[in-house]
Each structure stands twice: as structure tokens, then as C-alpha cells.
Amino acid sequence: MRGVRRPWLLGVLLALVTAGIVVALIDSEVSGTGAENVGESGPERITTTAPPAQDAPEAQEPVTRNCEATQSNPGGTNNYIPGAPRRDSLGSGFVITGVVRSAAGCRPLEGVRVQVWLATQTGGEQDNRASVRTGSDGRYRIETDPTVPQFGEPNIHVGYDDDAYREVFIRRVVDLDDERAVVNLTLARGG
User: Fold this and answer.
1) Which of 31, 83, 91, 163 has the most crowded CB, counting CB atoms within 10 A?
2) What distance in Å separates the CA atoms of residue 94 and residue 44, rounded to the nearest whole number?
3) What's this model's pTM, rounded to 2 decimal places?
4) Proportion of the chain in helix, strand, coil states, percent, rounded to 5
5) Are 171 and 77 in contact (CB under 8 A)?
6) pLDDT per position in the chain (191 positions), as tens?
7) Which domains does the chain have, with CATH numbers?
8) What's the CA dihedral at 140, 145, 149, 155 to 10 degrees?
9) 19: Cβ contacts below 8 Å, ≥ 6 apart
10) Are strands 94-102 and 153-160 parallel, antiparallel or unpaired?
11) Closest CA to 158 of 91, 100, 93, 92
């Protein structure tokens, strides 16, 4: 039976490989790293929540709640260098902002050092890095030059590595036309 060809077998094999690739693409994440898109176009917005009405029964008794801690994601520590210098700005045209909370009680954390790094037209992630501190409302903000694609997509890194809470390093993606990104952190105690 040597020399007998089975062209249909090659067709079946190609169909199976193609089906496998389609399933993998449908099931995979766009960034491939667990990094969600946090970019926004348009002017910076500050959102506030109104306090509960004074006559509401739930306003009289404090409610203790906890928030889920932010988990580091693959790629979060790419090009990380400890001890980013304190800076208020890394350029202009793109704003990174967010709120830092405690997982225990969901309260905003004041004075927390947040590190930010990203690639821009002026340099790579190791050159464009800074530390900023949260305000009394737990918010941080830094303006940078717009991010540029790195490994196929524009992305930013935000991290926390001081001793009071567990370290967290995250990588988030944005679109090229985004003017801001919102990256919130929820920090948990312990090691």
C-alpha cells in the first residue's frame, strides 16, 4: 500500500488546526497578560458620591465592609525599578489618576506612595517613572506625555511596594487616542 495518497487526511488535519486556533483566539485575552483597558478619551472627570441623607436609618449606624484587594497581574513588574523618584509630572497630554483604598473597611488611604512607569516618545519605561502620594481622599494624579505602544499596545504600570501593605504591581492597557487612565488600587495588610 506504499504510495497510496490520502489528500482528504491533510484537509482534515488543516481543519482541526484552524478550529483550534479559532477557539484559542476567542478564549484569549486581548492583551494576553490579564491587563484590562483603563483608558478614557476626553477631559478629566472627578466623580464624587453624595453622603447619605441624615434622616436615613442607615446613616446612623456605621456599616463595616471590606473590599477585594487588587492582585498583581502578569507583566505588572516589567521594567520595575524600586524607589522611583518623587515627581509631580512626567510631561503633558495624558493623566493617570486613581483612588487607593484599604481592603479592610474600604476607606481611602492618605499619604500612600504610588509608583507609575510607562513608555512615551521621550523614553522607555525605565526613564519615565515617578512616585506620587495620595491625598486625604486617597486620590493620586500624575500627568505624563502620552504613552506609546510597547510590545504591540500602549500600556502603563502602577505599583505599590512599601511595607505597610502587600506589594501590588499591575499593568493596564490604553488606546492611542486616550487622554487619561484610571487605575484604582485596593491594598491588603500582611505578607
Assistant:
1) 31
2) 10
3) 0.70
4) 15, 30, 55
5) no
6) 565 577 777 777 777 777 766 555 444 444 445 556 666 665 444 443 333 334 444 444 445 578 999 999 988 888 999 999 999 899 999 999 999 999 999 999 999 999 999 999 988 999 999 999 999 999 999 999 999 987 788 999 999 999 999 999 999 999 999 999 999 999 999 75
7) 27-39+63-187 (2.60.130.10)
8) 0
9) none
10) unpaired
11) 100
Distant-in-sequence contacts of 53-57, Cβ < 8 A, 24+ apart = none
Cell representation of residue 88:
509631580
Task: Indicate the SS3 state at residue 6.
Answer: coil
Amino acid found at 84: A
- Residue for grid cell 486617597: 138
94's grid cell: 495624558
